[in-house]
Design a protein that fits this description.
Blueprint lengths: L14 H5 L2 E9 L2 E2 L2 H15 L6 H5 L9 E9 L16 E8 L4 H6 L1 E10 L14 H7 L7 E8 L4 E4 L3 E6 L2 E5 L9 H9 L2 E4 L11 E6 L3 E9 L5 E4 L4 H11 L11
Parallel strand pairs: 5-6, 5-12, 9-10
Antiparallel strand pairs: 1-2, 1-3, 3-4, 6-7, 8-9, 8-11, 11-12, 12-13
Amino acid sequence: MGPGASPEGWPLHDRGVAYGDGLFETVLLRDGAPQLWAYHLARLARGCRVLGMPMPTQHDLERPLAQAGEGLAVLKLILTRGSGGRGYAPPAAPDPRLRWQLSPFVPDAARWKAGVRVRLCRLRLGLQPALAGLKHLNRLENVLARSEWSGADTAEGLLCDSEDRLVEATCMNLFWQRGGRLETPRLDRCGVAGTLRAVLLERLPIAEVDAAPGVLASAEAVWLGNSVQGLWPVTRLDGPEGEARQRWTIGAVHRRLQAVAHAPLGHPTRLDD
């Protein structure tokens, strides 16, 4: 248990430990105030409905906020079904267990300004529409994908599903502009529907599409984003072996989408100064 963590430990019979039976949220805090809080709560509530778990009370979810202090921090909330049941069978009346941890956060401003290099991952995400969009605790696919590279030059890896459709990056959502139209992968078969993605879909005409990686060859701009890091422009795409496939130069189109994405997070909206 690290600093800022909730005091109770994890029993080995907890279903989150044993089976990944639970959900989590990663929330940016600014001077103790959770950013995109309503979106995080909405996604957590949807996950609870899908998994058949009671939603924690607002009071319990907000308990860590008083300990956040000033500046930027990341709050990780982990909700499991608790203990009980026989084998995989869940208990008839689950008693969920909520834990949390606070960590200091310093955004990588260099990636906002200069962009990032990414690569296509070899791993393919399995299709499971019942869990699509949820931020559930079963994240071994992401762990395996992230183990495909170790160098600091590569910031992220792009993931496709088993039918070669673009889905997301290992911990960020993917966006691109093609023919003047903003697009993002459809997430009805797998992937995590990020809260920043939800905000952008509400505020901008972004089309959700099924597309293979080749679509990026005709893109004018590509971004990765989440509700903690904000939006990173992509300047280079490599193949699974590290070979360069595509390059982009950062321009006004990148900055316009960053401004829209960063405003609700409190991140800088003017990045060329």
